[in-house]
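[09:14] KT: can someone run the structure on this one? pasting the chain below
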Amino acid sequence: MNQDLTKLLQTWPYQAGQVMARRFKGRDGNQKIQLRVDLGILQMNAEGRPDGKRPMGHESWFDFYRSRLAEHLIEKRSPESFTLGIEECSKLQQECIQFHHRYICFFQLEDFDLVERDCERNLAVFEFVAEHAATEDLAWSLLQFVPQLLLMQTRAHGMASLRDGDFEAAVSQIQEGVSELERFYTENERLDLMEASPELGSLREWLGQVKNRRPLTEVERLERDLAEAIRLEDYEKAALVRDQIRKQQASDS
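[09:31] RB: done, structure tokens below
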């Protein structure tokens, strides 16, 4: 079997600065995701753990450690003495990175429901580690990725709404994403990181762009006409527009 990937790579050239992903059915009949990177191609399963492995016979390391917790609770009747050490946190972190690569691909493919699925999965892992890690430093080794996750999750929600033409929902979702990021930094006492957060900066910039693209409501359009009439000192037109605004507001209430 020829193991040289040159021809495959030549048919799918790498483009710097772009996320390049594709989905197809593998020889095993399952959906696969491929991500083009500078040195080659990453391939992942679309379902389950991206690399297809089953650690200790479980769907993932996360599922394995949750089963260990369940056994601990049966035996000890308390979660207090259940801890995740360096090895456990390292395995969970590496696993989360796999899911991170995959939801980046799903975002590029505009499959926002699957972005949400994988984001929620990783968020559950972060919460699990935050509760059970042996030390705060170990917990932060995974929690540090929460801002990236919240950014991607918010973008998926917002893009899905924009695709449906629902600008109001998109604005609300982006604002909620900003609030969630601010809460995360505040609750973890990382205000220094909040001030320089590229994720917050990105969402705030996007929020401004979406607001500028949002079509005006009928009242907003009339208010714009009113301002223009007053600027031109056309007070007769201004009075007519004011009446129209009152009627529109009454019908909207």
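[09:33] KT: thanks! Strands lie at 20-25, 31-37, 40-45.
[09:34] RB: yep, looked fine to me
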